[in-house]
């Protein structure tokens, strides 16, 4: 730990600032936890269980996201000839001697003080604290070993970005939901149910154990058993990883050439993975794709103007832009083959299966659309004011987005039309000899709306008459969107394989 300060002045400064911020965060966290002694037991349970679950999850995700070298990697001890069990045990013990665990121990002791104030005995408090710390240490050991063993050759900025994106997709909607709840001095019902569920999971069980004992809850025994079972499972996995590290030969360094290939290093080594990686490069670097993506928020926001001018209440109008954005996002790939220009010959001449082409090309828009909608839907519902509408709006967006993707997979191989060439302005459109482009665009839009009509109808009923129809809208949207998405990829794959020569002729002539 002292060696972490070695290096240049800038490195030492960054480490010092980070340590200072960590100490300040721990002090603030301890003060906040100790203040719960005067709060209601339900409030203390909610804060400690949710906070402990988040910290435990962080110990699992941090090694995968950061990718820092592990100084206690079992492979560093191969030459010492230590027994597997002894080495595994000592590395776990050494895992307790770290700054993150020291900070967590301080917070855990503060939480234990709160449970003691509510009547929990010394034994449940100590047991819960030890189980929580041991769970975090084992998770960190296991995830560090997995990251160094399986992700070392494929880690890149793109892979870390995907982890961060996944966390944001989960955290932001949850944060919006919690911020919208009306506490009124008590724990809302929705939050209490979430805490009860977390208390019976490996993430929250050790932190909830002492509190459940203080409440006299029958779930205390379950929480203890879940914590013990989780530790046993993690211990078995850790033992296997140490054995594998000591008995497996390192892969040759020649295989690590993939490390600098960007998205190609992240994507699977399959035809579909290669197409997805190439499509991701296009979507994030080609100005034509970027322009289409940037227009969507503006177009969705404009849809609010006519209803507001007509006098529609604002709480209804705020629900309109997100479904339009979902429809536009699903519509974007309706002519993706035309943007390939002459690069399309690689797919056709290489004998790529239609399924690999169709699905690989949809990966970029899925990586863009799903997180964007996951953030926009709860924000729109929070502005609307009725969280019961969340399933309905989700169902409508799923139906529009995935059905439009399904129809786009068919449209792009049946009726492609000329677009601006690579390097040209996204707003410079070439002359077309026929109306096929207009028909293709209108068909994808219309068909997606028609397929989504049941979800739209149930959403309208939930908005105006019976809120229970919100779940009907959700299921109608999921079924319609999923079915059209699967059918669209299947039909598009067949057409792609049968019209390969015509698609090459189209690409060469435009």
UniProtKB/TrEMBL annotation:
Q: Kindly list the residue ranges recorded as spanning the membrane.
A: 12-34, 40-66, 87-109, 115-140, 161-179, 191-212, 224-241, 261-282, 289-310, 316-332, 362-381, 393-417, 438-460, 472-496
**Membrane among keywords:** yes
Q: Which UniProt keywords apply?
A: Membrane, Transmembrane, Transmembrane helix
Note the superkingdom of the native organism: Bacteria
What name does UniProt use for this protein? ABC-2 type transport system permease protein
């Amino acid at each position: 730990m002292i060696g972490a300060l070695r290096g240049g002045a800038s490195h030492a400064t960054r480490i010092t600032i980070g340590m200072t911020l960590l100490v300040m965060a721990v002090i603030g966290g301890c003060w906040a936890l100790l203040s719960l002694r005067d709060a209601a037991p339900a409030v203390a349970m909610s804060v400690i269980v949710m906070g402990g679950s988040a910290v435990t999850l962080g110990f699992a995700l941090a090694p995968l996201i950061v990718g820092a070298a592990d100084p206690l990697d079992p492979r560093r001890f191969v030459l010492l000839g230590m027994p597997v069990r002894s080495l595994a045990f000592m590395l776990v013990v050494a895992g307790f001697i770290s700054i993150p665990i020291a900070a967590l121990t301080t917070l855990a002791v503060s939480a234990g003080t709160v449970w003691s104030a509510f009547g929990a005995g010394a034994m449940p408090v100590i047991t819960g604290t030890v189980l929580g710390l041991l769970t975090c240490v084992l998770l960190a050991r296991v995830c560090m070993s997995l990251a160094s063993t399986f992700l070392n050759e494929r880690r890149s900025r793109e892979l870390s970005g995907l982890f961060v994106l996944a966390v944001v997709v989960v955290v932001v909607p949850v944060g919006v939901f919690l911020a919208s709840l009306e506490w009124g001095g008590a724990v809302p019902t929705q939050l209490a149910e979430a805490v009860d569920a977390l208390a019976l999971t490996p993430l929250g069980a050790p932190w909830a154990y002492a509190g459940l004992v203080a409440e006299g809850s029958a779930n205390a025994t379950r929480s203890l058993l879940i914590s013990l079972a989780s530790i046993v499972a993690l211990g078995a996995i850790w033992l296997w990883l140490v054995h594998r590290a000591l008995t497996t030969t390192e892969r040759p360094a020649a295989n690590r050439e993939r490390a600098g290939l960007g998205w190609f290093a992240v994507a699977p080594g399959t035809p579909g993975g290669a197409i997805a990686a190439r499509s991701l490069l296009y979507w994030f670097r080609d100005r034509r794709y970027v322009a289409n993506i940037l227009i969507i928020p503006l177009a969705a926001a404009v849809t609010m103007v006519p209803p507001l001018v007509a006098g529609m209440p604002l709480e209804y109008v705020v629900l309109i832009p997100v479904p339009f954005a979902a429809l536009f996002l699903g519509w974007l790939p309706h002519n993706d083959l035309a943007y390939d220009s002459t690069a399309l010959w690689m797919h056709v001449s290489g004998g790529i299966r239609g399924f690999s082409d169709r699905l690989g090309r949809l990966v970029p828009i899925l990586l863009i659309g799903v997180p964007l909608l996951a953030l926009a839907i709860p924000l729109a519902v929070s502005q609307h004011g009725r969280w019961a509408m969340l399933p309905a709006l989700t169902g409508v967006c799923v139906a529009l987005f995935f059905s439009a993707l399904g129809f786009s997979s068919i449209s792009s191989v049946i009726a492609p039309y000329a677009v601006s060439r690579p390097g040209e302005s996204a707003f410079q459109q070439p002359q077309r000899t026929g109306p096929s482009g207009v028909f293709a665009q209108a068909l994808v839009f219309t068909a997606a709306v028609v397929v989504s009509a049941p979800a739209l109808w149930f959403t309208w009923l939930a908005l105006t008459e019976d809120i229970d129809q919100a779940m009907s809208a959700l299921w109608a949207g999921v079924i319609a969107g999923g079915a059209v998405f699967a059918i669209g990829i299947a039909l598009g794959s067949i057409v792609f394989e049968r019209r390969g020569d015509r698609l090459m002729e189209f690409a060469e002539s435009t």
